[in-house]
Amino acid sequence: MSHTHPESLFDQEHVINTFRKGVASVGCIAFIATAAAACGTATQMSAGAKVQSAIAKLGQQKSVTMNIGLNATQQQVWTALKGETDFTQNDAKMLAGTNASMAISSTTPLKNATKADFAFQLTFGGQKDVVDYRSVNGQLYVRADVQKLMAAGGASSSDVKQFQSVVTAAGKLPSSYKSIKDAINGQWIVIDPKAFLDFAKTMGAGASIPSTTTVDKKTAQQIVAAVKKAISSSTTFKDTGTRDGADHVTATIPAAKAADALVQGLKPLQKQLPKNFPLADLQKKAPHQNIVLDLAIKGGTLSSVSLDLAAFDKKINGKLPLTVSYAAGSQPVTAPAGASTLNPQDIMGAVMQLMSGKGGALKGMNLTGLSQ
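RE: above sequence
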């Protein structure tokens, strides 16, 4: 990766896709556990039932926090991925220090919740509090430290200097643009989604807003049932003892076999599925080997799930463990204090002022470089 072209950090598509696929696969464990007791030998049923009970206890909580990250040092990441084109030690440092934290909370047990508050926090390349997002009572709270993000991504000095010019220019805007200044300086802002949607409609942009394709409740239940059946018919469970105060269970999934079973289960629902649903790709992209999940259970509750990303990518040298840890009964998600309200009109006005040079430092400046 070249420091003169920091955008190449995000061109490591193969690396990022591998990480993303692993995260998605960990999410399937809920389906695996739910159907565990219906298949396998008596030993497998006992281990599967233990997992099922451990996940059910998470659902009994009013709040759960989940952390996702590579359970590997910079050197271990480098050893695993150094065969990738242009992959450097800086890239290894970035991935080893990246962690995503997600929290969900409700006033009722999560299994019964009809609405919940949500939070997401990203630690990027060891830089903390790079991106924060919260959804509380229908309002969106956002904070992003662009300078930390650029530093973690190996941005060039010219890119950093250019962004600092934007910060300086924003500082000269009138006090009525406080929310814009806060957003640029990495402070909390609050957004009302309805206000932005109404503004888009007023500006005639409503037709260009992409619509979200959804399925009806019955179809959703049928999809869930198909996934449960496909995975449970292929998965085996095994108790692997106690380590570090936790009971461990291994779930082994023959990926190709599970994908075949899932496709067959979803074919009767093909007409109800969204047009872009990747049904044909499920079999093509499934790795032809076992996916092994290690589940740790403490106090009868699921505490972590780990898998080796090498199962998804033959180019990975050795092992690259991804771990998802769970904290049940964590603090509920709350709105951050002092967030300023960002209105769509503020954005339009600030952009016009900055582009016209009234902010001082942006006159004649090429802003497109900030997107690189």
